[in-house]
Amino acid sequence: MDRLDLLCLGEALVEFNDQGGGRWFESIGGDVSNVAIAASRQGARAGLATRLGTDRFGDRLVQRWTEEKVAIDAVERDPTAPTGLYFIRRRDREYRHTYRRTGTAASLLSPDTLPSAALRLTRTLHVSAISQVIGEHTAAACAAAMDEARAAGARVSYAPKLRPALRSLEQSRDLILASMRGADVVLTALDDARKLSGLTDARDVLAFHQDQGARMTVMTLDTDGAMISRDGVVTEIAPHPAHSVDRVGFGDCFAGAFLARWMATDDPVAAARYAVVAAALSTEGYGAVATIPTRVQVKAALAAGRADAPAAGTALGGSEAGDKPRLALVAHDARKDAMISWGLRHHDQLGRCEIVATGTTGGRLAAAMPDLSVRRLRSGPLGGDQQIGAMIAEKALDGLIFFTDPLSPLPHDVDVKALTRLAVVYDLPMACSEATADMVIAHMVRSAAA
Predict the structure, then answer these.
(1) 348 is catalytic
(2) Where is substrate annotated to bind (predicted)?
């Protein structure tokens, strides 16, 4: 077992997202899983310590973690208990979650089942309050894990998340406060911290944390940046603007990015600035995992001084972004349904690519396939087509699929001609129909594998 930068202990689940019409899209979830993936995408050696069933849902999680380069040495499979599931329905612009976690393998975590070898080989252990309250013995297991990791010289990170549906604030308050006192860093959100403290002002909330014995608190302020409190000194981190469409997983992305950079630099203020940008970028698409940015994308946004889509040629090249080829997707209004249908048929192949897509097309792709990595550019008429053109010129794309509407009025011809000309000049594989798109995606995936 290799030494890790970060080990996340707790519950992971398989997610089913209601797509309407009786269709459900399967992905993965669980806050500690999200944190581990976010840290891994920033370059940290991250791993998970959890329990899964020996069912296909457990297989799904293991497969995705392997793809994300998240270590699974401390993942135990239980043949007698299932993997946890949850279901998401979006109604009236709100997400409604239904969980199947009673009696799951993760809920049976106990001090006797802890992965002691992994706890001794990690630089930082991350624990969430959610994992403490999902089973009869999970709180004791989390406390024992924190003690064991600290005894081995590791730092301890703690997320005091409040989940009234699992346990009321009155029931969990003492447990959370005790865990905060045993952590080197408390990663929280202002809303949860206000409820825990009963205070409103952010600085008063941070002072409460210090009075309770928290060594360092890093607190996100939703769209207003973040604040850090260390030994009574408070540092404010400015927000970064983003074209936000979905904030699911925002805090988990922040936590993973912060922990990865804190371990790399030992500078919590610089780590928080980095994490604010990463979390802002993650809100520009749909889903908790698919939208987590890579380190290259965050660095590009930091260099540009804004949390916008990475500039062409900086974070979009295949070799820079990792092993995945980069594919641009565009569809005229009359062809957007066809693009979604084509994408669903080629979901597995798209999962092997990093995808950039213009405005509405990107939003619909991310909503239909939340587990994909989809980076939304601006709407085509507002500059998205020009962004793609710049990427072609900078040789930052591996393929372009533009579902055009040949029967539309003349203005559409300008976009098609401009991108077609650049694709020909730079010898970029380009498709404008479903049949040719099949060939382009097959060529891209085959070339990447070779």
Answers:
(1) no
(2) 332, 336, 358-361, 379-380, 412
Distance CA 248, CA 255 (A): 13
Tokens standing for residue 256: 């993973």
Would you say 228 and 235 are in contact if contact means Cβ atoms under 8 Å apart?
Answer: yes
**CA 180 to centroid of chain Cα atoms:** 24
Query: 3-class DSSP state for residue 297?
Result: helix
126 known member of a binding site: no
3-state secondary structure of 310: coil
* 66 assigned to a ligand binding site: no
Q: Is 332 annotated as a binding residue?
A: yes
Q: In degrees to the nearest 10, what's the CA dihedral of 236, 241, 245, 249? A: -30
Domains of the chain in sequence order? 4-304 (3.40.1190.20), 318-449 (3.40.50.1380)
Q: Among residues 246, 385, 398, 415, which one is catalytic?
A: 385
Q: What is the pLDDT of residues 108-166, one digit of tens each?
A: 999 999 999 999 999 999 999 999 999 999 999 999 999 999 999 999 999 999 988 88
Contact 29, 12 (CB under 8 A): yes
Q: Which DSSP helix (H) or strand (E) runs through 333?
A: none
